[in-house]
Design a protein that fits this description.
It is a single chain. By secondary structure, the protein is an alpha+beta fold. It is built from 3 helices and 11 strands, in the order E-E-E-E-E-E-H-E-E-E-E-E-H-H. The chain has one domain. Helix 2 packs antiparallel against helix 3. The protein is globular.
Amino acid sequence: MSEHKIRHDKDEYGFYTEVVEDNVQKENTVLYTISGREDFVDREGFFRIGFQPIERAKVNPYVHAIKHQQRYLVKLGENGKLFNPYGLYSEGMETKQRVGRPTWKFMNTTKSNFNQYINFLKTKNELFLKNAEREMF
């Protein structure tokens, strides 16, 4: 049996790290969601989902923002704008699919835009969402 193990641990900040064969740690994906769908709340008050590989996280209907190494991804709705999970007509849209694919997708964005969007997910304040949309387009 191999002496090397792959295991998932949390560091002191609550981030999941992966121990790989060479004992090199790399930061994995950080997944953000809304209140009521979280696995835990981090120290800054953001609602988070536990570790998932990035491919699986992109198809998880309850993941709304992803930070993966130096990439920042936000969820776009069917209309091409940032997805608003608190919106009037967004109930049930998280899990809705068309022809076997989700109606939403993820798009790369800047760090400041990403921070605006995750602040919106945390506070439900639509001002953060509007500012993020303005920066994006």
